[in-house]
Queue: 2 jobs
Job 1
Amino acid sequence: MTNNDIAQKGQQYVMNTYGRFPIAPVRGKGSYLWDADGKQYLDFVGGIAVCILGHCNDELIKALEVQSQQLWHVSNFYWIQPQVEAAEKLVRESGLDKAFFCNSGAEANEAAIKLARKYFYRKQEAFRNEIIVFKDSFHGRTLAAVTATGQTKYQEGFAPLPGGFVYAEFNNLASVERLVNENTCAVLVEPVQGEGGIKPADPSFLTGLRKLCDQAGILLIFDEVQCGMGRTGSLFAFQHYGIKPDIITLAKGLGGGFPIGAMVANEKASSGFAPGDHASTFGGNLLATAVANQVLDILCTGNFMQQVVERSEYLKKELDKIIDRRIIETRGKGFMLGMEFNCEIKGLVNICLQKGLLLIGAGPNVLRLVPPLTVNEAEIDQAVDLLKEALKEWKI
């Protein structure tokens, strides 16, 4: 089938929940995709920061093939060896203590929300059930996660929304201090806001949050669904800041394209859950954790992360060389970069698509660049050249 054939059939049978581009990728390798018409694209979307080792990575394929020939699924009523191994690696690398596995970032954040509340319930402080979140944040599409999301456009039409969330200003510690009270149980924050426009947290803001949470006796939760798993140049984004949260949530890159999410917590926070408090039928299944183990092994071996740092710095340097009166700034950490414009960038994204470069926005005015962590300098040069060509053609 052609791109058009697939699009027409999709419009007939698939629920209309995405504004889709008019292509249907059918094959991928490394940093490249090919659509149903045979056109090649340099992919700087990567499933939205998911395919961190590129498309069809040979080592991930092998791990999946080996596990698929042994056992696909059993209930979490039994111990699952690759799940235990993945938990051990996450605990070892994060310095936290226990891991819970699920299927997505929204589920990981739901688990963190439930854990924070159950922790205080078990301490006979059930009244402490309010979570401080941030404007312009994004935490997922389930009802609780979308309520925690500080963007009303994602919440419209879903009332009544769950209670127990209050909204502070990102990078404004005083706004958080004003909201802390006897009902507060946790602060939930992205170290780098993703859908809110690729906005890194100020180091003093996050260290201030850690100190505030310690003083108030509340939990600090980092949503690293998009900014974790090497995306910012360290395995976990919090490692840039010299502090440690009580809970982190992960997904996206953890499976390199295979669906998996995780919540990792310290011993104190983990004590909130007991058997029956939370679960996931497919969470941490054999296939997903077999792949996640391979992803973690690659990220934590040799000089992989140093290469991420070097190549992401090269990309940032090349983007900074682009001169265009519509560009306000280019910001971010590692391979999580956003180029902010003084106008909407939908037209620019479409021109890039036509030229064979896949990019998406992070809000209406920010061009997001989240290539695979394996992208090389030649591919970076190609992407920057295509972007420059698109900017010349883009008229507003």
Job 2
Amino acid sequence: MTQTLQKKLVTFDEFVAKYPDNTGKRYELHDGFVVEMAQPTGDHEDVVGFLALEISADIKRLNLPYYIPKTVLVKPLEGESAYYPDVLVINRPNLVNEPLWKKESTVSQAASIPLVIEVVSTNWRDDYYKKLADYEAIGIPEYWIVDYAAIGARKFIGNPKQPTISIYQLIDGEYQVTQFRGSDRIQSLAFSELNLTAEQVFQAGYVG
């Protein structure tokens, strides 16, 4: 779960000046509130690492001007929020147009972000509600919600619940969702040649 640390609203500038601190913990800014992110489980990190590795391999193979950074904030254009996605694909050539890049390693333009991925944990509402709305408002072309443990609400992943990858693609300024489960081959506009099934992602690439 996430934990709100204070009741006083803070600005983005105040947030980046103070966090991360020297505790090694992870924080995000949600509508002016500093939120401590829960320590991820090993399974969560297996899925994140597997996706980052597979997408990085595709970036290299296709010679795309992209890379996956370690710690870059995504800031919506309006409001006082800033997020650390589980996997963030950066379009390097557009970074010259990002006013917050040099000092705060922060991006806020859709042209800088061809793909963002959130791997669901106990704070699933953030992924399905808040971040979905904010990423759509930024205009990020593609957003994946990887619910490998079927944690989200039934209205998002079905009844009975089942592990689901929801891929939201921006069409006429609005996200349209396609879902993948089991042996379904993932269909991505950002990485059209990515050869992965949903189950491979859920199992984090391990066989047996």
